[in-house]
Design brief:
By secondary structure, the chain is an alpha+beta fold. It is built from eight helices and 27 strands. Helix 1 packs across helix 2.
Length: about 450
């Protein structure tokens, strides 16, 4: 059926393939970063080169996680004795959609569920620039409702490297801000305004990066901090790279030169607003967690000044929290780029920095080691007023709650009925007086839904 191929023909094909491959690569690079574009030829070449990446993105959502805890499923352990709630953001592996559940932690019962129609919301966004592939990358089956925030008016705010969205208790859209891509944390200040990281597009600074991946366009991820009103109106925004330049920290951006300049040099993952005056900060300041700098900044938007920066005892950290008038906590991923890639060097930690003592300490370290907590990316922690500790191990779909003495009170693993574990999305524990007031008001005033 098949004829034998002469060996010289095979060698000829391989020989001719070398200049063809080089030419293909030149056309792709020219379209991405070249000063002179080659019209339809380079555009078509770039399109063809991106087909494998597009297929991979469609087929692999990365929402199923490694099963490290095959004996765990749902809540296990003792419910909380004090009134508290959990805004549980998770990917439902059976529905194949992201949802948020309001859970009563005194009995682990689900009191309310949000399940918005992301496909419907996407129809209101122009599919250009940074949202060109929104329907492909952030549809109902690929969207995780990250770091949901329940507001005093009963609205739920969330994102997923997407427009910022707010829905009512029936999951109907209240507003959607699609000025830029919003990502990572969502926090409210004492005035009810919302602080969220975003990307400026196009970039605010004339910095060029030749991407290591053909999908990386000219430029870099220009992280920004944004303050919005409860109605989604932008009140303040500032490029973090520009903050570096304005405060004499430009060496952190440019020290390795153009060709090695990272496409993601900052990677902000948390903005924590300061809501009270103190010896070491002022109301209106914000703490910023910058993962790829392994740095936490205290920044004053009113004067555009960096007041304090912390480095050295945490690596690729997340989630900065203010504990009192002189201490903060930081979730230390403790991940480092070794030969085998970005891995946790031991275990995650919750680091406390005391401004009065100018010193660091590790909170309930032995408990985190004993329970093998080691999420490489993401993750969060919250030290409650009574000393209890809430931790989310995002990469493995697990949350844990420790008593103040370090004993494990309960765990939750997001396992579907198909027995596979799936991602969770920066769930939020609600425990203080204001949180409880918001939850009770929501449950009392929520409307009956038709769906």
């Amino acid at each position: 059926m098949f004829k034998k191929i002469e060996i010289w023909i095979l060698y000829l094909v391989l020989l001719l393939g070398i200049p063809v491959s080089i030419g293909f690569g030149v056309l792709v690079r020219q379209e991405l970063v070249g000063e002179i574009k080659l019209g339809w030829l380079s555009k078509t070449t770039l399109f063809l080169s991106e087909i494998p990446v597009s297929i991979r993105k469609v087929l692999n959502s990365d929402l199923e996680v490694k099963d490290r805890f095959n004996l765990l499923s749902g809540f296990k352990g003792s419910p909380n004795s004090k009134e508290s709630y959990l805004l549980l953001s998770r990917y439902d592996g059976d529905l194949k959609e992201g949802i948020v559940e309001l859970v009563d932690l005194t009995n682990f019962k689900v009191l309310h569920t949000w399940n918005p129609d992301i496909n419907k919301f996407n129809k209101y966004v122009k599919k250009i620039d940074e949202f060109k592939y929104l329907n492909r990358d952030k549809n109902n089956s690929r969207f995780l409702l990250m770091h949901p925030l329940l507001l005093a008016d009963g609205g739920l705010v969330f994102l997923d490297h997407s427009p910022l969205m707010k829905i009512d208790n029936c999951s109907n859209l209240i507003f959607q801000n699609s000025k830029d891509v919003f990502h990572h944390s969502i926090e409210a200040d004492i005035d009810g305004n919302i602080w969220v990281p975003s990307y400026f597009y196009p970039q605010s600074l004339p910095i060029r990066k030749v991407g290591r991946n053909i999908t990386e366009k000219q430029g870099f991820f220009d992280d920004a901090i944004v303050k919005l009103s409860p109605d989604g109106e932008i009140l303040f925004e500032k490029s973090v790279a520009q903050i570096f330049l304005d405060n004499g920290l430009e060496y952190l951006l440019f020290s390795v030169g153009d060709q090695l300049f990272s496409i993601d040099p900052i990677h902000i993952n948390d903005i924590q607003p300061v809501n009270f005056e103190g010896e070491f900060w002022k109301k209106g300041d914000v703490f910023l967690s910058l993962r790829h700098q392994s740095m936490v900044l205290l920044y004053r938007p009113s004067t555009n000044k960096v007041i304090w920066k912390g480095t050295g005892l945490f690596f690729h950290q997340h989630d900065v929290d203010i504990l009192n008038n002189h201490t903060i906590s930081v979730f230390n991923n403790n991940s480092k780029d070794f030969l085998g890639g970005d891995v946790v060097d031991g275990h995650n930690e919750v680091i406390i920095y005391d401004f009065k003592m100018n010193g660091y300490s590790s909170y309930l370290r032995d408990s985190l080691i004993k329970n093998d907590i080691r999420t490489v990316t993401e993750g969060s922690s919250q030290i409650l007023q009574n000393g209890d500790l809430f931790v989310e191990e995002t990469n493995y779909g697990r949350t844990l709650y420790f008593n103040a003495d370090g004993t494990l009170r309960w765990t939750y693993l997001n396992r579907a009925e198909n027995n596979k574990p799936y991602r969770i999305g920066w769930s939020r524990i609600l425990y203080n007086d204001n949180d409880i007031k918001i939850v009770k008001n929501f449950l009392k005033k929520r409307k009956k839904c038709n769906n």
